[in-house]
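[Discussion] Sanity-checking designs against the backbone

I'm trying to build intuition for which residues belong where. Below is a structure token string of 232 positions. I'd appreciate it if someone posts a full sequence so I can compare it with mine line by line.
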């Protein structure tokens, strides 16, 4: 369907609300309402396409015509390790610093999609094995990890971190096979989003061990996060 914008009358009062309303009407027309009958042959010129904007630290993201792409990275450097413990919080999901992004959606529209891609290295270390509990990938879950949007976690992305500590023996301090480089990907429907500020990323819920000597610390030592929202 076509759109029509009138010019401002001479002497008319112009404020931010009026300008935002006109800009929103143009964006809505271009992104959702434009029809084939509105176009002519070779109508799309470079001056009709807004070039991408690229932003660096501390909010690395790209702003595109119909959406944004946010990127986060946690390096392998020990200074960037994120440490969690059930001593401080147990069974509640909390965000992992460096693996979350905050973004702004201009308006409420069912045409928006959000896709999240994450990869990270996580493990348990520093516990005691004096009780003789096994080190494997099925017996003792030290934490649960999920992707979340606005604090709501998605069970479809569930990952489990298993106990990897063993200091009650002289042979080794920790097993490597329970350590994981996990990858996640999930598409969030608009029902999980809202107009305005939204957050998305990796959340972890440390679990209380059956005995206080089972495990102590959870480490996130490296990882990447990509959060993309766009209009379909």
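Best answer:
Here's mine. Compare freely.
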């Amino acid at each position: 369907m076509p759109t029509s914008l009138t010019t401002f009358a001479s002497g008319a009062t112009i404020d931010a609300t009026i300008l935002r309303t006109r800009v929103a009407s143009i964006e809505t027309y271009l992104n959702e309402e434009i029809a084939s009958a509105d176009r002519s042959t070779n109508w799309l010129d470079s001056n009709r396409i807004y070039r991408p904007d690229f932003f660096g630290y501390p909010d690395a993201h790209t702003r595109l015509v119909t959406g944004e792409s946010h990127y986060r990275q946690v390096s392998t450097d020990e200074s960037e390790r994120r440490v969690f413990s059930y001593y401080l919080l147990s069974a509640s999901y909390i965000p992992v610093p460096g693996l979350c992004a905050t973004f702004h959606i201009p308006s409420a529209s069912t045409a928006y999609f959000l896709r999240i891609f994450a990869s990270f290295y996580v493990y348990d270390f520093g516990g005691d094995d004096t009780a003789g509990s096994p080190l494997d990938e099925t017996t003792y879950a030290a934490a649960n990890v999920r992707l979340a949007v606005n604090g709501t976690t998605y069970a479809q992305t569930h990952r489990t971190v298993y106990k990897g500590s063993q200091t009650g023996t002289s042979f080794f301090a920790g097993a490597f096979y329970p350590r994981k480089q996990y990858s996640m990907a999930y598409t969030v429907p608009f029902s999980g989003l809202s107009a305005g500020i939204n957050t998305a990323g990796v959340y972890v819920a440390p679990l209380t061990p059956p005995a206080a000597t089972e495990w102590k610390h959870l480490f996130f030592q490296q990882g990447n996060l990509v959060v993309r929202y766009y209009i379909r």
